[in-house]
Amino acid sequence: MIAEAQALRDALARVYRPWLVHLFEIRGWEVGPAVAGAIDQGEQWLTDRLDHLLAEPFDRQRRGPLELFQEAIRFPTAALVDLGVDQVERDPLAERAIPGDVFDLAPASSAVLGETVWHAHLVWGAAKANAMRQA
């Protein structure tokens, strides 16, 4: 895995749990055992998928790292559904972009995940664009 990809993988994996815990705190939702287990599951799934995706040559990567982060939200989402938590009202554009994110947990951009993630995503994107241009 190239250095840019490793930095992005590490940044996304590092922020997954804190991002979710922060959202739960500001919404007044408890991170009980079921939710904590779901976050663990999502974090492991995300790390595994990022490792696989970012090990691929750029021209074979059919999804982006942020898409995987957004998809990993399904684990805590399922836990919230099982607990009977009411879904949140979402912007219609967000509903179309990420339809399964009924609790509005998925970030729309890497920029909202913090400067470290955003910067790593930009550097990786530039490396990918450069490699694709040279291919």
What does this structure look like?
This protein is mainly α. The protein has one domain. Helix content is 67%, strand content 0%. The chain is built from 6 helices and no strands. The protein is elongated and about 50 Å long. The two termini are 18 Å apart. The mean pLDDT is 94.
Radius of gyration: 16 Å
According to DSSP, the number of beta strands is 0
Mean pLDDT score: 94
**Overall number of structural domains:** 1
- Helix proportion: 55-70%
Head-to-tail CA distance between termini: 18 Å
Number of helices: 6
Structural class: mainly alpha
* Uncertain stretches of 5 or more adjacent residues: none
CA-based shape: elongated
Q: How would you spell out the order of helices and strands?
A: HHHHHH
Main sheet?
none
Estimate what percentage of residues fall within beta strands.
under 5%
